């Protein structure tokens, strides 16, 4: 009971954060808190198999898959909120009411003692007991749940699919477009010059140089350009001459002293 009263407020707060979070990554992290807390409650209720499944499958696999998809693909805030499937709002309301009825029935069974005790349920081991009751008494519900998950996966694929309005550009079309841009605006048709083209090492502090000695804008980091720390050779020509003159004077005087 102590673990429940500690974890229950945390799970409720994380669930509210899941609902009201503005960023999808924050919502996924809140969902992770709910899943891990639920796994701990499974362990407290003497259900090690459900605890392991909750951690390995749901938290470790499915949720991490959500996070990877969000980080790689991203979520555009300008997505349209117009319903493209007719009747989905009514269907979601019906599914929500059905889920609420199942929760009420489950809580009522536990509250009025119609569920057998944990000792009898785990008789012979937790994993064999779960397998026996799952594939005998609740086999129909198990198969319906598996069909529901497959349907959800197919629905996600259908919703994420986007019809291409224009044909995919080929390599020849891209090359022709680069040449047209070069003829119209003077944009270089080749790739951007990487840093350190005329330097001894490839680093961000040695940008590519143009024929006049200035740094190519495409090889300069935007952060360094904003800070104004990039200086080209013509800008520091006077400093180079001054340093060269000082060095030659020092070396000449040293050479004279050696001769003397």
Automatic annotation (TrEMBL):
It catalyses: a quinone + NADH + 5 H(+)(in) = a quinol + NAD(+) + 4 H(+)(out). Keywords: Cell membrane, Membrane, NAD, Oxidoreductase, Quinone, Transmembrane, Transmembrane helix. Residues 241-260 are annotated as: Disordered. The chain crosses the membrane at residues 6-21, 28-45, 51-73, 93-118, 138-160. InterPro entries: NADH_UbQ/plastoQ_OxRdtase_su6 (IPR001457), Nuo/plastoQ_OxRdtase_6_NuoJ (IPR042106). The keyword Cell membrane applies. One of its GO terms (cellular component) is plasma membrane. It is a multi-pass membrane protein. The keyword Membrane applies. Its EC number is 7.1.1.-. One of its GO terms (molecular function) is oxidoreductase activity. It is found in: Cell membrane. Belongs to the complex I subunit 6 family. PANTHER family: NADH-QUINONE OXIDOREDUCTASE SUBUNIT J, NADH-UBIQUINONE OXIDOREDUCTASE CHAIN 6. NDH-1 shuttles electrons from NADH, via FMN and iron-sulfur (Fe-S) centers, to quinones in the respiratory chain. Couples the redox reaction to proton translocation (for every two electrons transferred, four hydrogen ions are translocated across the cytoplasmic membrane), and thus conserves the redox energy in a proton gradient. This is NADH-quinone oxidoreductase subunit J. It comes from Nocardioides pocheonensis.
């Amino acid at each position: 009971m102590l673990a429940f009263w500690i974890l229950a407020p945390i799970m409720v707060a994380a669930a509210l954060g899941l609902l009201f979070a503005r960023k999808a990554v924050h919502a996924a992290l809140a969902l992770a808190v709910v899943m891990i807390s639920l796994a701990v409650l499974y362990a407290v209720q003497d259900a090690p198999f459900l605890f392991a499944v909750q951690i390995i499958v749901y938290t470790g696999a499915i949720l991490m898959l959500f996070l990877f998809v969000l980080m790689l693909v991203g979520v555009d805030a300008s997505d349209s909120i117009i319903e493209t499937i007719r009747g989905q709002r009514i269907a979601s309301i019906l599914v929500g009411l059905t889920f609420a009825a199942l929760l009420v029935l489950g809580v009522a069974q536990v509250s009025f003692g119609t569920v057998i005790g944990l000792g009898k349920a785990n008789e012979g081991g937790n994993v064999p007991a779960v397998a026996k009751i799952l594939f005998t008494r609740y086999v129909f519900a198990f198969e319906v749940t598996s069909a529901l998950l497959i349907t959800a996966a197919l629905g996600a694929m259908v919703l994420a699919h986007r019809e291409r309005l224009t044909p995919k550009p080929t390599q020849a079309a891209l090359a022709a477009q680069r040449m047209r841009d070069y003829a119209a605006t003077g944009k270089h048709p080749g790739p951007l010059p990487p840093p350190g083209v005329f330097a001894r090492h490839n680093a961000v502090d040695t940008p590519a140089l143009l024929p006049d000695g200035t740094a190519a804008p495409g090889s300069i980091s935007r952060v360094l350009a904003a800070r104004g720390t990039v200086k080209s050779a013509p800008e520091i020509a006077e400093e180079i001459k001054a340093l060269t003159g000082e060095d030659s004077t020092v070396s000449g005087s040293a050479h004279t002293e050696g001769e003397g």
